[in-house]
Amino acid sequence: MGGTAIDAASPPQEPDDLWEFIGEHPFHARVVARLQATGFYTIFALGRMQLDWSLITASVERWRPETHTFHLPTGEATITLEDVQVLYGLHVDRQAIALPQYIRSMTRAQFLDMMGHLTGYIPQGDAGGSRVALSAIRDHMAFLHPDITGETEDLHIERYTRLALLLLFGCVLFPNTSGSKVSMRFLHHLQQLDGLPQYSSGVAVLAYLYRSMCRASMGPAVDICDFLPLLQVTTFSNTLFISPNSIWSK
């Protein structure tokens, strides 16, 4: 084995369920249009996927950090940029996503100011560094939801859209092991929503998945946090032609 395999992959804690929230608070057509323009709406539209944790565990056990590939009985396989683009519509051939140094050195107070300016919402409390609780974002969106109508100003539609994207990033695309917080550093790339399609978001998602897989496969972590639907779909397609017994064989 190329590392210490985890006994059983387990999901991050999920106190803030994105899909449950959307089910109770469906997006207004104007928010849908803004999300479609950003390039992320396909993931919202696909919705929740029932995760097979046995398959995910086996995938982690077969992952080799030195090559970023799965070692299967029939050879090597991996998750590619083409997978990300074809399955979820995320761009992989645009500008690279980079975080300026000044963003990395910002204080929590500065992040909260940015949060207030871009979303109209400032979380309470001084603890948490650059992170904000997903539950706080969800609760604020629930408060705003009745006011999102066909007559709502564009400014408020954009603010609501940014909050929805923060939920998507923290719950689905870039979750952390707590499953309960998201970094306000993402706000840097959400300043101009119309500019999001110019970036290779698919590359960032795949890189984050690779890093999470490497950490989980090398142990001793028992949680895996990345874009798990992408992992599950591509793993299943790569092993579809193998008999079930051979998938799990060591």
Name the beta content range.
5-15%
Total strands: the figure is: 5
Low-confidence stretches: 1-10, 12-16, 241-250
Biggest pleated-sheet summary = 3 strands, antiparallel
Question: How do the SSEs run, as a string of H and E?
Answer: HHHHEEEHHHEHHEHHH
Mean model confidence by pLDDT: 87
- Count of helical stretches: 12
Question: What gyration radius follows from the Cα positions, in whole Å?
Answer: 19 Å
Structure description:
The protein has 250 residues and is mainly alpha-helical. 49% of the residues lie in helices and 6% in strands. It has a 3-stranded antiparallel sheet with strand order 1-2-3. It has a two-stranded antiparallel ribbon with strand order 4-5. β1 and β2 (69-72) form a beta hairpin. α2 packs across α9 (154-173) and α8 runs antiparallel to α9. The longest helix has 20 residues, at 154-173. The model is unreliable at 1-10, 12-16 and 241-250 (pLDDT under 50).
Question: How would you briefly describe this protein structure?
Answer:
The protein has 250 residues and is mainly α.
